[in-house]
Amino acid sequence: MIMRIAAFLLCLLFVLVGCGAEPPHTPAEPQALAADSGSVHPLSESLGAAANIALPTLDGDSLRLVDYQGRVVLLNFWATWCAPCREEIPDLSALHAQFQSQGLTVLGVSLDETGIEGVQAFADEFDITYPLAHDARGALAEAVGNVYGLPTTLVIDAKGNVVHRVVGIYPVEQMQPVLDELLADAGTKS
Asked: Are the beta carbons of 63 and 126 closer than 8 angstroms?
């Protein structure tokens, strides 16, 4: 009995120590990313290997960022259980509908560990109109780095460079000028 208690306490100790560990991915250039709502971090970094990671989409295809080269991309990492994500989705759908013909693509990447069926049900319930992919293992999130809070949104220019990273809700009034400028620079905005 004493051995079981000792083993339990030892396991508990390992769990508690492990929870306080540093995140597994540290970017080459550390960014002070606060988890507050709408922390905008302008930067310029290449997607590198992340551009070729293929994720399953809800319609059975695969999504790779490299396939969107030449377009401005709003890449949103989210989860079905995330309340701020739920709040942000209608704005992202509206932006996608409004600017899709002008060169903007909104891409949603679910980090839910549950199956794709749960993500599909959520997408149907919230009438999500932009492409969605499922990243249950977090491969793309790890490859782009600094996806430690949800939602996290990356703004990617038409050349494939991450130019903004936002942890928390990205308010449309902050997002709109950034997107307008990038679409104009890409020569795709009318």
From this structure: no
Six-digit token string for 160: 């494939």
Domain ranges of the chain: 33-185
The CATH number, out of the four listed (3.40.50.10170, 3.40.30.10, 1.20.950.20, 3.40.50.300), of the domain defined by the range 33-185 = 3.40.30.10
Q: What is the mean pLDDT of each run of 10 residues along the chain (190 residues)?
A: 54 36 32 38 64 92 92 96 96 95 96 91 95 94 89 94 93 94 77
pTM for this model (two decimals): 0.76
Distance set, CA 184 to CA 51, 67, 98, 177, 180 (Å): 23, 20, 15, 10, 6
